[in-house]
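Hi support team,

I'm filing this because I wasn't sure whether my run with 2-acetamido-2-deoxy-beta-D-glucopyranose finished correctly. The job status page said complete, but I'd like someone to confirm that the output block is well-formed before I use it downstream. Pasting the exact inputs I used:
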Amino acid sequence: MTNISSLCLFFFTLPTILNPICALKSCEFPAIFNFGDSNSDTGGFVASFPPLNPPYGETYFQMPVGRFSDGRLIIDFVAKSLNLSFLSAYLNSLGTNFTVGANFATASSTITLPARIIPANNGFSPFYFLVQYNQFVQLKDRSQLIRKQGGVFAQLMPKEEYFQKALYTFDIGQNDLGAGFFGDMSVEEVNASVPNIVNTFSTNVKSIYNLGARSFWIHNTGPIGCLAYVLANFPSAEKDSVGCAKSYNEVAQYFNYELKETVLQLRKAFPSAAFTYVDVYSVKYSLFSEPKKHGFELPLVACCGYGGLYNYSSSAGCGATITVNGTQITVGSCDDPSVRVVWDGIHYTEAANKFIFEQISTGAFSDPPIPLKMACHRTMG
Ligand SMILES: *[C@@H]1O[C@H](CO)[C@@H](O)[C@H](O)[C@H]1NC(C)=O
Ligand SMILES: *[C@@H]1O[C@H](CO)[C@@H](O)[C@H](O)[C@H]1NC(C)=O
Ligand SMILES: *[C@@H]1O[C@H](CO)[C@@H](O)[C@H](O)[C@H]1NC(C)=O
Ligand SMILES: *[C@@H]1O[C@H](CO)[C@@H](O)[C@H](O)[C@H]1NC(C)=O
Ligand SMILES: *[C@@H]1O[C@H](CO)[C@@H](O)[C@H](O)[C@H]1NC(C)=O
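And here is everything the job wrote out:
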């Protein structure tokens, strides 16, 4: 009861949100199951592929911990706000604890089957969405058998009821667009492939629903055309007023349009589940269009990178040791990552991730406009 009354107090102070929200109870999610790419990878990729080097992780963890940032990711702030500990990566077999959920995301994962996988040149993660789904099936089935062994095993696996009560979070799609842009496809061809990508997303989400999931929190894809890896690799791309590559962002917008339509269809098809579409794109774009307003600077320039207009080069990534004029140097961090948007040319800083979390968790960028803590509900009333 205290939960409900404090919520009402909180919402009465916001003039735009009226009574009905007071009818909503906080969901008390006991666990999170996350699917995605490097935007939400908490150690899956590095459990299978070469580790990240310092200065990854320097701001919060003081060491690289498998997150593609200087610190925490949006998913970390999500977990914290739901009073849950950091999510263990499903692929990490060392010291993991899945009682409050699991993270299936790995860096460079795609929704659709990648044409080439790492370590091939231009390769993507073998752990694409369907594989992440299969891993989830494994966890769901086997966790209960393992719990029955008792002792420490019972303290490492989620309770059976958590699978239905958990929040299911998704942030995937950026690499499907990237695979096209960096493969041999024109921008128009990548754009034309969007409906197929989104269909595949939908198929996997339905499968997760069929296993009992009921609360879905779905991030759209960010403005890929504002990221140094696109700007530096496609220097002739036409820029918008803030310097982002216009047509690349338009493909992301089309992906988001199709994704939103798909989420609407899922909501119609499954009346017993809550599907929340979260417009991460708009929040991320505001960091590029109005950085000063939000306390940031140099949004197009990577904090940890090397070379060119955007401090980014694919051959000299963050943490790499390179030779410049016969001297070895390590690609390190900028002076103050806390005022920077882009960390390594592809991923955001902890400061940006925290800002994005604070914006999206209120529900102001969601459809329906439901706050994170209430994302088990379908409507405001
Ligand atoms: C998290 O814990 C704090 C302090 O105990 C409490 O005020 C808050 O309502 C909890 N949040 C959720 C989502 O349960
Ligand atoms: C796993 O995490 C849960 C929740 O944070 C905790 O209660 C439990 O003791 C942990 N298990 C072990 C073996 O430490
Ligand atoms: C992408 O395709 C959609 C639907 O055909 C179209 O409306 C949009 O203009 C296209 N965008 C680009 C950048 O090609
Ligand atoms: C490398 O040496 C050249 C020639 O002395 C100089 O012009 C250039 O600025 C040097 N580059 C760096 C990064 O120090
Ligand atoms: C570019 O990256 C280097 C590390 O290689 C860093 O020292 C420098 O501060 C960065 N430049 C900017 C403008 O952030």
